[in-house]
Write a structure and sequence with these properties.
- Helices cover 86% and strands 0% of the residues.
Length: 224
């Protein structure tokens, strides 16, 4: 409970800082919305079955908008000169990682859940799918945030940090994205849970493995 309180304190700090400016949330929301609108307009002109392409569009929007938030996770701390102070606090580095990871996951999930109803309407999907798609989004976001937080901390020490993060991150999160797309496709196609259970389980396993490995390596990354 003692560590949990410290983790939540870091999440609350990031949330309060973001609510003062809303810069990151606004950028992520606009980017995700623009991606969905552009793809919907293009597919309406050329594609016969938009629903077949819908899961890919959803996760392109989630992944790239999430990248905007992840890239600012530690850069904001560094720009304000508070990164050293955060690392010097008398808490385990793992607590800092968990706080930053949960904060990133919260920001990405909030943006995606706001965009989700727009996505459902534009692609002519049933509103009953929203809770199930929301679950897939949360699971995929946790996997993205786990590795993304680690590489965001790593990228701040480089000059090309905005470019380096996606270059390092995308190859590693391919399993998460594929599992999330397959799970979302099964939900949209109204497949029985037994047929998509393997993708649900695979996504859950990747979330746990990536989070644990990122937790372990975070201390070495910030020491560099």
């Amino acid at each position: 409970m003692h560590h949990l309180h410290k983790v939540l304190a870091i999440v609350a700090k990031d949330l309060a800082a973001e609510l003062r400016t809303r810069e990151m949330l606004s950028a992520m929301f606009v980017f995700a919305l623009v991606v969905i609108l552009i793809f919907n307009f293009a597919f309406e002109l050329r594609a016969e079955d938009q629903q077949t392409l819908a899961p890919g569009v959803l996760w392109v929007a989630i992944t790239f908008s999430g990248m905007l938030g992840l890239s600012r996770s530690f850069i904001r701390e560094q720009d304000r000169g508070s990164l050293e102070g955060l690392l010097l606090t008398p808490v385990d580095r793992g607590v800092i990682f968990l706080g930053k990871m949960l904060g990133n996951a919260l920001f990405i999930t909030v943006v995606d859940l706001i965009v989700l109803p727009v996505f459902v309407v534009l692609f002519n999907l049933s509103g009953a799918l929203i809770p199930q798609l929301a679950l897939a989004i949360v699971l995929g976001t946790l996997g993205l945030s786990g590795v993304g937080t680690l590489f965001s901390a790593m990228a701040i020490h480089t000059r090309a940090r905005e470019i380096l993060l996606p270059v390092l991150l995308f190859p590693l999160i391919v399993p998460v994205i594929i599992s999330a797309v397959k799970l979302s496709a099964g939900i949209i196609d109204n497949l029985p849970f037994a047929e998509i259970q393997q993708w649900f389980s695979l996504l859950l396993v990747f979330d746990i493995v990536f989070a644990v490995l990122s937790f372990i390596f975070f201390d070495y990354v910030v020491e560099e």
